[in-house]
Structures are given as structure tokens and as C-alpha cells.
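so i finally got all the pieces together for this one. its two components total, 924 residues if u count the protein bits. some of the lines might not be protein, just check the labels. i wanna see the whole assembly predicted at once instead of chain by chain like last time, that was a mess tbh
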Amino acid sequence: MNRDRAAAIVTSGAAAGATGDVRLDVRGLRIRAGETGPDVVSDVCFAVRAGEVFGLVGESGSGKTTVALALLGHTRRGLSVSSGEVLLDGVDLLRLPADDLRAVRGARASYVPQDPSAALNPALRVGTQLRETLRVHAGAVDDPDRRISEVMREAYLDATPAMLRRYPHQLSGGQQQRVALAMAFVCRPSLIVLDEPTTGLDVSTQRHVLETVRSLCRAYGVAAVYVSHDLAVVSELAAQVGVMYAGRIVEIGAAAAVFPAPLHPYTRGLLAAVPAAERAEQLSGIDGQQPPPGHRGAGCSFAPRCGLVLGKCRTQVPEPVFVTGRAVRCLRVTESQAARPGRPPLPAPAAAPAGPLALSLRAVSAGYGPVPVLAGIELTVPPQSCVAVVGESGSGKTTLARCITGLQHKGTGEMTFQGAPLAWGARRRPQQVLRRIQYVFQNPYTSLNPRKTIGQIVSQPLEHFLDLSRDERYARVVRVLNDVSLGSGFLSRYPDQLSGGERQRVAIARALAVEPDLLVCDEVTSALDVSVQAIIVELLRAIQRDRSLAMIFITHNLPLVRSIAQTAVVLQDGRVVEAGPVEQILERPASPYTARLIADVPRLATAH
Amino acid sequence: MAHTAPGANAPAKPKAERIRRHQWLAVLGTAARTPRGATGLGLALVVVLIAALGPLAAPHSPDALVTLTFGKPSGQFPLGGDELGRDVLSRVLNGGWLLLLMALAATAIGIGAGTAAGVSAAYLRGRTDGVIMRTVDVVLAFPQLVFALLLLSIIGPKLWLIVLAVGITHAPAVARVIRSATLDISERDYVKVAELQGMRPAKVMAKEIMPSLSTPLMVEAGLRLTYSIIIIAGLAFLGFGQAPPAPSWGTMINENRVGLPLNPWAVIVPAALIALLTIGTNTFTDAIGRVAIGVDRKPEEAALVDDLGLAGGRAS
């Protein structure tokens, strides 16, 4: 059968440089909602060798976490495995009795969850939590205390008694995740499943944690499954990679082959959406959204979004096709191999137009209570240009946005907007200034009132700021909805009927409706999948150009800056460490901090 | 760019549209369809119908002395006579509507005052919050019935005063619940969007915050209605209510308890009606609360909702 061949392909594909036998073999895994509900995961097959990292990539809703949990014989309440096998060293975990399964979990198969601050028990000391695993699996190791200090050292943690006595909240995010890794490795498992273990960590911390993961996996010869939405991270870490879409693995093969030359249209679209720090390129996202279980259609689930779609794609589920050492679920894979257009470079920015600065900040400091968050910020935004504000978490980027937009009521320093002084706090600003500065929030799931229709949401600022007739207002709302590619069909819908990307477009439309002069975008893509992020960034860039807007684009994502901004400001601990043109900062950073940030950004393996 | 956004071709149907606009209607409808909700609503509706249509159906005048004192039930007087020889059935049928009206009015006062206080305290914070919540603490220090009795003994047993006293004593508890719900909502970004437009605080509260409070408000209203019925009937039992000849379920229990061995129906029926009504409203309230937080959702449905971020609205 095809599924056996798929496993065989993956196995043989890894033959060169393989370090061991197949430890984990997943065959035809199918998971559905309830006993008779729609499939959440269909026909997932892959194999992982000892000492090898298998990367499972997919956007939200692709079923990657469901697969990850099934590898430990676990399904979330309401889901059930309807067929398939998860063979760990030849034993099918899905058919083990509950007692035996418990003996396997934590000892032979372990799990590292996404958020270490939620996964570690805040009331127990680090040492207690590490010892707990060994106590449950008595006999897994000879000398628990020695084993604990050993695994701590291997996870690059101080194996001192003082460290073991700490509580999780006394550790940094990176240290917490290393403790979680140490807990996972303490019993010397055969399989380790890592579910987005570095999401939410800053790039430098992420780099260190990834190095820890890599060295631990190599040292222990475990089969590791690394689940992530971040293609660059997987490309750096994994030997084999499987790309999931709508519950199926659509492309699987060696990471060194898949990333430089993707074959499935979805993989190709996904990779085209990932920004590169090296080049200023236009990004291209994938229109539409991933269908949820029960709405995946009769044929290929990607067909509605695919540029190469044929009639048969809509009626026939593509079986894996085996090409150059990998399996691809696409009917047109052989024809489409050649077509891989590169991304067009960004047009050179026009010369900065003359005129007063859109915004300038001088010696701005602000904080919450006695804690200073911003200290002496200098920032200038030329008219009609986009300035990126970059920094890690806690650097003060959002506080800076709050100062500019007026959500921060207290602070010192001088803010000037279009040549006139800008007051602290929205209540002290005249209506015209409030209208000219618009803010797009990070999370489109909380920035739209769930009880209002899209039409009401977009027209509300119009009613408030501008004295328009009903018809004029309606026309304006339809126009901005068209500008963000939504159209008037959305007027009577509610936010919960929209995808994350659509919601963010509504938020942008709301800001644009009142024709602002300065748009402040605070991490507007961080809650979105990468294929949607590309669409939003391209949209913002087009809007900024067409409407001659000044824009402040706040982000932690350095490569993204290249695709949207002309100048950038790097923040660290509430101070500006570097400011200048984007290509200068990304290519010849002057400050060691910026240089380290850039070096730590994970990079996609590309053919370039 | 996405000129053909997915799903743009499916505008919601008008009926679904109305339900979405008034999300509380959807919650009420779903609650009424659960077994728990249907039972509660059924019980309460039976009692409400008796109270509302009773005056039209009563065979005798509630005040007329037509039968024997504590007379046994007979064909002409199915529930027998009361302490003065009045028809118990006619008094039962006439004695409920005012209790219901008073309970509804007291609930409305309590919910209105409590919501205003709770939302303002949570949204305005600072000194307003302190003043409102300390007042709430003081009022909460008195047991509800004692506070009502205190007011009644000072001013006199007026019906409006009973309604007002019960309503005011509900307000602090409502304020606490609504305040904590508002604290969460007022941190959401759409509230900040409104603030950045320079919208007045009163308008922010009314337009942005209040619509999201419909679910906790429904649960609170149901709970307070139940308490209002109990307290107002209890006050009537203690003699604070309508003046004596007028029929009232609470008063009837007190008047007729001396005749319990002779004609128990004169006590049992009004007591049972009050009990059924409160059990009904409370059960239905419970059903609303369960629907609102999704306790009764089937696990496979819940799994899909959690995994894919499909909001509850899509399921309805």
C-alpha cells in the first residue's frame, strides 16, 4: 500500500548519514471527533530514526498538536483514534492497556509542551519536579540524584542545590524551558515530542534552547518529533520534515530537499510567505483559509486555495506521489516541479518627500508607577514613510506605541506631531489629532467588539469623528472594506465568523476609515499564521504607499522589517540602541546587541 | 490580494441574523431547549399562567364569605374554605399576580442599580470604585430580610417601599458580579479603540461594555427574581404586604396555618405555588448559566471548538 511505501521512502531517504534504526513508526493514523464525527487527522504516516529530529510543520488548525499528543497515546477529550498505529520500538502505543501506557509515558516517550510557565507546577521546586518523574518511574535510573545533576548539566542548567531549590517563577523563560527539557530527558526516553517549545521565547533564548534540544537529541539517540509553525526553526533543526495541511501530511521528505525546493503548492506558498532578513522582497501569502474538520471537501483540501487547481483536484483525494525521495500529496506534482518563481524584490523607496516630520519624540520616558519602561527615547518619523520599531519582549515597544497613541497618560519628554506638540493621554488631545493618529492592535481577537457587525465596527469611528450623512458613511465603509480586500459582503457579519487574517483586515479598515496621517501597527501579525502575515504585510505596504501614510510598524520579527519599513529603531530595555535605514541595520549593525539579534534569527535553508 | 475572500458568498439568513444581533435571545433559546431549562421554564410558566389568568377564572369573589370556616373541599369549593369562610380556590387564583409584579419590579430595580454601580466601579476605577464598593460592603452587611424589615418599620408597610427595599438590597450583590465581569471586558482592545476616539466614559460603558454583559446579567436576573419572590412572599407571611382582605399567597399561608388540621389545602396550595415558581425560575437560570459557559457541550463539539478557535456563535 501507499502508506507502507511512504514510510519506506522516509526511511530510505534518511539512509545517508542515518544514526540508527527506526524507533518511531506512525502508520495510517486517523483521528476523528467523537465516534462518528469528521476526521481531524487523516492518514498520517511517518517514521523517525534514533538520533534524528523529525519536524512536523503546519499552521494553526492543521492538526499537528493532535498528532503530537497521539504519539504518546493521548487524544484530547472528544477525539478518538479511529485507525492507525504508533509503533515505538515495535510496540503499538495506541493498543497498550492504560497501565502499560502510563509506564511508557514520561519514561520511554516524553512530551515537552509549548508554554513552560504553564507546564511547570508553580508551587513545586524545580528539584521536586525533576525527582517526581523518577519517583513515578522507579528503577528507570540507578542513582536519581546523580541522574538529575547529570541531566541538568546536559540541559545547560547549573546543577547546583540552589538551582534545584528554586521555584519556576524564579527562572527566566529560557531556563524554564530547559527545566522542561531536562524533565523530558531525565528517564532517557526513546521518543521525545516537542510541541512548539520555543514559541513565545525571544530569538536569542530560542537559539539557546534549540541548541540544547539538538545536543540532547544527539547525545541520547532519541527519536524526536518537533512540532512547530515556524519553518525557519524546523529547517535549522530537523533532518526530515512533514508539512501538515487540514489534517494530512501533504509533503514529507528530507528537510535539506524540501525547504530549498518545495513540491506541494501549499509548501511552496508557505515558504514564499516567510520573510528573509537578507533580501528586501515582496512576500506572497496564500489567500483563503484552512478548512476546519468537516468542511474539508471531497477532494484535495488545498484545492480552493491552490493556483494550479484542476477539476479532478476537487473530487479526488490525492494519494502520496513519490518524487526524488519524498512523498507529496498532489495530483500535479510532476508537472509543477519546474515552476518556482522567485519573489520579486521590493522597489527602491522613493526619495523621502520634503515637509514637516510626521512625528518626532525627544527624550521620552515613561513607566508604570515607579518602574521606568522607556528611558530617553528619540524617534523621528518622516512623512509618508514607514519606521519599524524592533525589540525583544520587555524592551518597551508596546509602551512606546501607547505613548504615541495616547493610551499612556503619564510620561516626560517632548512629542511633536506634524509640527505641533502632542499632549500626553488621549483625553488631552483634540479630536482632529485623535483622528489623525490611528492604532492597529496586536490581537485581532480582542480588538473587535464581538457583539457588533463588521459594518458597525468600521462605521463607528466615522460617526464619532466625521459629520457625514448616512449614505456617505455607508459608501466610505464599503470603500475601505474594498481597500482591505474584504468587500461589502462582510458588512453584516460578526467578528467570530471571520478568520484571524480577516479580523485584522477589519481592524485596519477601521483605522483607515477616518483617513489618518499616522498609522501605528503594534505586532499586527504576531497572532497570525505566516501565510496570512504575508498578506497583511503586503496590504499594509500597499496602503502606506497609496495613501501616503506615515506608519510605525512595531515587531519582534527582524526579517519582517525588511519587507515593510525604510528605517528602523532597535529598542533594548527601554532605550534606543540603534536607528537608521533598514538595510544598514540588518546588514551592518553598529551595536553588538543588534548584531546578536540578527545572528540569532533562525534561517530557512534555501537554494539561493 | 484576496479579492475573493472565502465564505463571502454566504450571507446569514434574516432569522439567524436577528438572533446573532441579540445574542441573549440565542442563549435563552438554547437554554430552553435543554432538558433542565425546559423543566424550569415549564414549571415557572404554569405558575405564571395561574397568577396572570387566575383573576379571570376565579369562580367566586376572593373576599366574599361563601362557605364554612376551614370548610372541607367540595364540588362547589374544590379547595374548601379559609379562616373566614372565603373560597380558597378563588383566593389562590387572585393572590399571585401582585406577587409576580412586585418581584419583577424589585428585580428590575436591583439589576438596574447593581449594573450601573458595578460597571462604573470597574470601568472608572480609582475613587469611584472605592466609594461604590465600600457602600456595597456596608449594605451587604445587613441580611436582606432584616434590612427590608428595618425600612418597613421606619416608614410603614407600603407596597412601593417593599419593592424598593428588596430592589436596593439586591443591588450590592449584582454590583459585585457585574464589576468582576466588567474588569475583564474593560481591558479588551476594542474598549481602548473607543477610548482613543475620545469617546465619553458613559458612552464607552453603554456601547462597548454593556453588550458583552448580557450573559452574566441574564443569570443574575434569574437569580434575583427567585430571591425577590421568596423575600416578598416572606414579607407577606410576616404581615408586610397587601392590607388584610386582599388575597396573597404569602399572607394566606400565615392566615390559614391555624386551620391546617381542618383544611390543609388553604396552606399547601399557596405554599406549593411559591415553591414551584422559585424552583422553576432557579432551574431555568441554572440552564442559562450552563449554556453560557458551555458545560453541557458534547465533548466532540468542545474538542473542535477548542482546537480551531471556532466561537460558540458558529455552533448555533
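Chain A has 22 helices and 22 strands.
Chain A has two domains: 2-108+187-336, 359-600.
anyway lmk what u think
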